Amino acid sequence: MKRRAFLASSIAATAAALAAPMGPLEAAQTMTAEKGREFYQLRRYRIRSGPQRKLCDDFFRDALIPALNRLSVAPVGVFDLMIGAETPTIFVLMPGMSAETLVTIETHLEQDAEFMKSGAAVFNAPEKEPAFQRMESSFLQAFPNWPKLVLPRASAMRGPRLFELRIYEGASELDHHRKMEMMQSGEVDIFNKAGFDQIFYSETLIGPRLPNLTYMVGFENLAAREKQWAAFFGSDEWKALSTQPKYTFEPVVSNSTSLILTPTAYSQI
């Protein structure tokens, strides 16, 4: 798949084109089928403290997650922004093998009578008391060398855990692809040795601040996060990888964003 072709259209334009030959979307879906790479829709809901919180929680827990699972979109992660700008914010991560399903998710959900019934409180919320202020969405594709989301053991055990969502922007396509290569050729192994839970790695196909890559790692708590990042940056492997000339002739990351997230009680991740 040629990334530039994918970026030529928005999610809305792609969805509108699904009735015709799909072009870039079909190419991406074919590659995914061959290599087993997932797609992700990552949503950011901006809310206000107060009644919106309960309305959102009830909707995600009782309406959205069950409906997504019926579409084979699972496991669904719902996270609160613990450390980062613009709190309160809720993130929703939707993984799936079908690009068509994720791109046209609203169309599928509107055809689900149970979803429409259980989500009625959100759909019918008055203008002065909406369920959320705004929702933003990005469309991602998993790295070739990390094709599917990995559920940490703490999620299955419902144990203590927090997650870090990191976004690396590249000044150019060349820098962006060098950073992707750097991560797949060495950083993933160093994360593993340092004890990180590695959830997913992806390239952002449609969304803000392109080109960029987005990934998520996990820890038991903030103290564990600090210890494991120190092990990562202090390792001989990282020092050797990060000083290779092909990664140092200019910065491979022009801007980075780090968000600390905590899973809701009903999150599947």
Count of helical stretches:
13
Distance between the termini: 29 Å
| Beta-strand content bin | 15-25%
Give the H and E element order. HHHEHEEHHHHEHEHEEHHHE
Shape verdict: globular
Uncertain stretches of 5 or more adjacent residues: 1-25
Integer count of domains: 1
Q: Looking at CATH, which topology would you report? A: Alpha-Beta Plaits
Helix content: 40-55%
Biggest β-sheet description: 8 strands, antiparallel, barrel
CATH class category: Alpha Beta
Total beta strands: 8
CATH architecture: 2-Layer Sandwich
The radius of gyration computed from the alpha-carbon positions, rounded to a whole number of angstroms, is: 19 Å
Structural class: alpha+beta
The overall pLDDT, averaged over residues, is 88
Strand order of the largest sheet: 1-3-2-8-5-7-6-4
Overview of this structure, please?
This protein has one domain: 2-Layer Sandwich (Alpha-Beta Plaits). The N terminus is likely disordered. Helix 10 runs antiparallel to helix 12. The protein has 13 helices and eight strands. With 269 residues, the protein is α+β, with helices and mostly antiparallel strands. The longest helix has 21 residues. The radius of gyration is 19 Å and the shape is globular. The two termini are 29 Å apart. The chain has an eight-stranded antiparallel β-barrel.
Compact overview of the structure:
By secondary structure, this protein is of the alpha+beta class. It is 42% helix and 25% strand.
